[in-house]
Amino acid sequence: MRRVRVLHVIEKAIDSGGAERFAVGLVTHLPPDRFERWLCVTRHADPATSRELADAGVRQIHLQRRAKWDVHRLAGLVGLLRQQRFDVLHAHMFGSNFWGSVIGRACNVPVIIAHEQTWSYEGDRLRRWVDGQVIGRLATRFVAVSAADAERMVALEGVPAEKIVQMPNAYIPRRRGNGDLRAELGLRSDTPLVGAVAVLRPQKALTVLIDAHALLLQRIPEAHLAIAGDGQCRGEIEQLANQLGIAPSVHFLGQRGDVDGILQAVDVGAMSSDFEGLPLFGLECMANHTPLVATAVGGLREIVDHGRTGLLVPRRDPAALAEAIADLLSDPARRERMATAAEERMSEFTIDAVAARFAELYERLVREAER
């Protein structure tokens, strides 16, 4: 049988951001004997990710869009689709979902997949309409990463239910790092340490985590919090830590590539998000034997069995978040039980397992399109 020709489309190929890391992980883990793998990056790729793609044998196209309305560069996607005759176009995230669906349909690509990682599904009426009436109608399938997102896509956006396929995100290993995080931060080896890894944007509600840490210190004064990542909200979060007088116990690590090593060093992982699809950070905690405390939103309710594999708390509730973290920091045996139970579920979330599911989906949809 001939190899299926698959083109993935995403704005950025970078090592930060769950959607970007997942897209790169997926295209590099599709079986090369069954798929001819391409990635079109409409904005930019970092050098390390480009090397990773090249080393995996993935062909890359870079359109170099610099702004939202810099649409003339998408002519390169039109030319590529007409020249190469792909079997599958798989777009990731809203902008690429829109352009991939419209241009892919115009260029007669047999199978078009739009992939939604998540969004708030609130406020933006135009986006809801585009998802439901444009992308949802033009795409062959619309991927939701959680049952919660799938339900909202149907109920709030009007995406046809028969178009939606639920597929999980996957754990994608990162380099471990050779350092000792507590030593790096100048902490004693027995210091209670909570960790969070995120793009610092409003969705992650990290001011709630800062408020929770201030409350945590009332119960466990020696506790510290390490936050890895960067983004638009960093200044606001740092300012709040200063205002609350807890800055000495809050450590901003910046963008890090050794997330697995960080998670292996901390005692508890924490998420304070307002909404999530199926966050890679949750899977990274599971894979690295790190008990997780998170808000009960989106797909987190599907991967965290409250009280057995982690703890879930209401969103925007710093007191509940602080109490759950304190309970785990105070009970090493319970942390170990939860981490072990969570790790036992990892086989269904490895990148090889998830890539195999997408491979089957691609081949099935191509067969159906050829009938």
Integer average pLDDT: 96
CATH topology of the largest domain: Rossmann fold
**Unreliable segments (pLDDT under 50, ≥5 consecutive)?**
none
Q: What is the highest CATH level, the class of the largest domain?
A: Alpha Beta
Portion of residues within helices? 40-55%
- The CATH superfamily of the largest domain is known as Glycogen Phosphorylase B
Please state the overall shape, judged from the principal axes of the Cα atoms.
elongated
> Which architecture of the largest domain would the CATH scheme give at its second level?
3-Layer(aba) Sandwich
Beta-strand content: 15-25%
Q: In a few lines, what is going on in this structure?
A:
This protein has 371 residues and is of the alpha/beta class. It has 15 helices and 13 strands. It has 2 domains: 4-170 and 350-370, Glycogen Phosphorylase B (Rossmann fold); 181-348, Rossmann fold.
What does this structure look like?
The chain is of the alpha/beta class and 371 residues long. It has 2 domains: 4-170 and 350-370, Rossmann fold (3-Layer(aba) Sandwich); 181-348, 3-Layer(aba) Sandwich (Rossmann fold). The protein has 15 helices and 13 strands. The strands form 2 sheets. A 7-stranded parallel β-sheet has the order 3-2-1-4-5-6-7, with helices on both faces. A 6-stranded parallel β-sheet has the order 10-9-8-11-12-13, with helices on both faces. Strand 9, helix 9 (234-243) and strand 10 (250-254) form a beta-alpha-beta unit. Helix 1 crosses helix 15, helix 8 (206-219) packs parallel to helix 9 (234-243) and helix 8 (206-219) packs across helix 13. The longest helix is centred in the C-terminal third of the chain and has 20 residues, at 351-370. It is elongated.
